[in-house]
UniProtKB/TrEMBL annotation:
Its cofactor is AMP. Belongs to the ETF beta-subunit/FixA family. It comes from Caldovatus sediminis. Pfam families: ETF. The lineage of its organism: Bacteria, Pseudomonadati, Pseudomonadota, Alphaproteobacteria, Acetobacterales. This is Electron transfer flavoprotein subunit beta.
Length: 249
């Protein structure tokens, strides 16, 4: 069984994001970039399926600037077999990414695509769902547990009220939640080995997709600064402040 794992290059989660002075977006120049954390979980899950003998090949795919090859290399060092970089130097919306992934699915014929539930840069939480819709495949989103057997995927989903378990006929789409697993660190020998694994480079046009954005970002702003807290001496004083200063009770 072949698995496809899309991995996105994003600003590292430890970096304090700064808004560009002209309000057109966030600063990415000279900022540490990494694989989207939910995609690391997706790669880890794919590698575990390979280790269990369920998956035979893992293909990591990234859509973005040439440097996104670094994130593919990270996936290869974690255990993916080969990579595909769809090079595009410009804004990418989930629909464009989903259309490109649909074309990659047509080319690679995977039985399962494991994506992150959302990319931590623009928090869209849309690509997996859009890809499922474009392909007409079943989807199990926000997976906290995944089992594959008898041509079916059983996905335990984290929903507001607790856990929901769904059964999907393969081929299918799964998106990862935080508690699915804890991704491994790539060992030095595996980082060295990953250098020799192949990465194919394509352009969106090679896949017949025009990735031009359909939305215009009007303005990006910093959230308002939080005001410093106040210490109170008693519950009575707290209630008094909530009632008379904050006027929330
Ligand atoms: P989003 O819908 O943008 O929040 O992203 C959800 C998931 O879609 C991510 O966790 C990735 O698995 C995948 N994805 C989104 N954008 C890209 C991209 N440019 N390249 C590869 N995968 C992507």
């Amino acid at each position: 069984m072949k698995l496809l794992v899309p991995v996105k290059r994003v600003v590292d989660y430890n970096v304090k994001v700064r808004v560009k002075s002209d309000g057109t977006g966030v600063e990415t120049a000279n900022v540490k970039m990494s694989m989207n954390p939910f995609d690391e979980i997706a790669v880890e899950e794919a590698v575990r399926l390979k280790e269990k003998g369920i998956a035979s090949e893992i293909v990591a795919v990234s859509i973005g600037v040439a440097a996104a090859a670094e994130q593919i290399r990270t996936a290869l060092a974690m255990g993916a077999d080969r990579g595909i970089l769809v090079e595009h130097d410009g804004a990418l919306e989930p629909l464009a990414v989903a259309k490109i992934l649909k074309a990659v699915v047509a080319k690679e014929q995977p039985q399962l695509v494991i994506l992150g539930k959302q990319a931590i840069d623009d928090d869209m939480n849309a690509t997996g769902q859009m890809l499922a819709a474009l392909l007409g495949w079943p989807q199990g989103t926000f997976a906290s547990r995944l089992e594959i057997a008898d041509g079916k995927a059983t996905v335990t989903r984290e929903v507001d009220g607790g856990l929901e378990t769904v059964e999907l006929r393969l081929p299918a789409i799964v998106t990862t939640d935080l508690r699915l697993n804890e991704p491994r660190y790539a060992s030095l020998p595996n980082i060295m080995k990953a250098r020799k694994k192949p990465i194919e480079t394509l352009k969106p046009a090679d896949l017949g997709v025009d990735p031009a954005p359909r939305l215009t970002v009007l303005k990006v702003e910093e959230p308002p600064k939080r005001q410093a807290g106040k210490k109170v001496a008693s519950v009575q004083e707290l209630v008094d402040k909530l009632r008379n200063e904050a006027k929330v009770i």
